[in-house]
């Protein structure tokens, strides 16, 4: 059951509120003075405070209420506070709203509006606390992950990326093949490095082969090596990637580009650890952890007959799916700042433009954009124009023009505000949400336009 603290020296007011809240399954605590109220906040878990503005019989300035509000805000900055005020104290209440008070209610109050406001603020506070707990939990898990594992300097903040990294560290201890799937430029090689760095062969070599960058007729020689004369131009014997990776990890990028003949040999190595160099009959034995990566649909390639099904299942003992950058937006700004380097800052509009862009080239595209912006920007603050993003990616409301985004964009007029307040039954929080404004911003407009809540 939610709990509301009522701080009011008028017993009749406190009792009336207590009875009203009890009818709506809300527990009420009562305090007759600011000091008693502050003491109760230290002793009880409270979801919301309703406080009067005056506590001395001959005082009508609202100074006591202002001092109480400031004391509550200092000790409990996230606790919502509703101000009870007479119309003569409206200006003081509005000033406190600007300072962070949740709402104000004029005496005598409307029971329906009060309950609606209280329920809205309690639900908002509960949701905020749940979010804070989740964020703190994620931060704690990230710190534990960073303390307990070598993450190879990977920059991340999005929970989706953290899940992939956590699984990578978990499977690193098992000596089984791992397949990393995801679009080009998402950081699959960095995930492979993390697997190597946290495995039992962390001190062994980490050898990389991009299967898509080698001509199909040379891919077998690259993987397994070749004796002299094995093919035109092979004047001397050469070591293949499997031999180079013996006692360590071999990362095969773009595994879908491996020709069928090479796939058959790779399957045998994975099963037995044995292979022959191209042009040789002598069998060699290696112990290599194989991590592969692809941006292709290997299942579709199996159906098309261009990828062996048995090799797929051998490689795919564990699959890590790395999402595209657009699907992990919390990584964008930390990565951007990392690529930008020290001494440079991102303008708020540039940050918004980066978040609005879809990043078809993923992390690789972001890195190129930030390196270019850092070189070409005229000052230390990177603006939207410095990013060189397509106009459609410059965000909503004209980020491309470099204008600051503030409360005045799509300014609601007097009629729109009055209509929103009417539809919300006078509950400012609901009206503000409908208008796309904060409560404080809506109160400023109401004061400027002389609008009184219905």
Automatic annotation (TrEMBL):
Highest taxon of source: Bacteria
Residues recorded as bearing 4-aspartylphosphate in the entry: 52
Cross-referenced CDD domains: AAA (cd00009), REC (cd00156)
UniProt keyword list: ATP-binding, DNA-binding, Nucleotide-binding, Phosphoprotein, Transcription, Transcription regulation
DNA-binding listed as a keyword: yes
GO molecular function annotation: ATP binding; sequence-specific DNA binding
Gene Ontology biological process: phosphorelay signal transduction system; regulation of DNA-templated transcription
Residue ranges constituting the Sigma-54 factor interaction domain according to the UniProt record: 154-375
Coiled coil: none
PANTHER family on file: TRANSCRIPTIONAL REGULATORY PROTEIN, TWO COMPONENT SIGNAL TRANSDUCTION SYSTEM SIGMA54-DEPENDENT RESPONSE REGULATOR FIS FAMILY
The protein's name: Response regulator
Species this protein is from: Duganella flavida
